[in-house]
Amino acid sequence: MLLVKKIKADTVIFTEGDIDKTMFIILDGSVKTYAIRNGKEVELAVLHKHDFFGEIEMYCNKPRSMSAQAITDVRVVVIKNRMQLDQFFGQNPAFSGKILRLMGERLALVNAAL
């Protein structure tokens, strides 16, 4: 069974530069992702129910490229490795298509920026 965690509003979930491969899927609430550039916070996205974040580090050996903070109280599924991600897909097959589509869109944006 996958871990479901409750996180209070305003809690920093992870920080840019952290070494961690955990991915999160939002069950309830809102999370913002952001980066610090030239000493200023740059908001990257506001995520809601059924959105996910932290997946990039699961696939590469690099520190976190952004920070994530709960905007409201949130409940998230905590996925610590690819085996747990496969387990989640097995339990939620419709969700796997959403993740693949969004990861493809995110990759396309990065490629366009390069």
What would you say this structure looks like, in words?
- This protein has one domain: Jelly Rolls, CATH 2.60.120.10.
- The termini are far apart.
- α1 crosses α2.
- β4 (31-37) and β5 form a beta hairpin.
- It has helices at residues 82-91, 93-113, and strands spanning 3-7, 12-14, 23-28, 31-37, 40-47, 52-53, 67-70, 74-79.
- It is built from 2 helices and 8 strands, in the order ββββββββαα.
- The strands form 2 sheets. The chain has a 4-stranded antiparallel sheet with strand order 1-8-3-6. A 4-stranded antiparallel sheet has the order 2-7-4-5, with no helix packed on it.
- The radius of gyration is 14 Å and the shape is globular.
- The chain is an alpha+beta fold and 114 residues long.
- The mean pLDDT is 89.
- 27% of the residues lie in helices and 36% in strands.
Put the structure in a nutshell.
The chain has 114 residues and is of the alpha+beta class. Helix content is 27%, strand content 36%. It has helices at residues 82-91, 93-113; strands spanning 3-7, 12-14, 23-28, 31-37, 40-47, 52-53, 67-70, 74-79.
List the helices and strands and how they pair.
Blueprint: E1 3-7, E2 12-14, E3 23-28, E4 31-37, E5 40-47, E6 52-53, E7 67-70, E8 74-79, H1 82-91, H2 93-113
- The tally of beta strands, per DSSP, is 8
Main structural class: alpha+beta
CATH topology descriptor: Jelly Rolls
Task: Tell me which CATH architecture applies here.
Answer: Sandwich
Q: Into which percentage range does the β-strand content fall?
A: 35-45%
First-to-last CA distance: 39 Å
Mind telling me the CATH class? Mainly Beta
User: Can you summarize the main beta sheet?
Assistant: 4 strands, antiparallel
Number of domains: 1
Low-confidence stretches: none
- Binned, the helix content reads 25-40%
Mean pLDDT: 89
Rg calc: 14 Å
Shape: globular
Strand arrangement within the widest β-sheet reads: 1-8-3-6
Full CATH superfamily name: Jelly Rolls
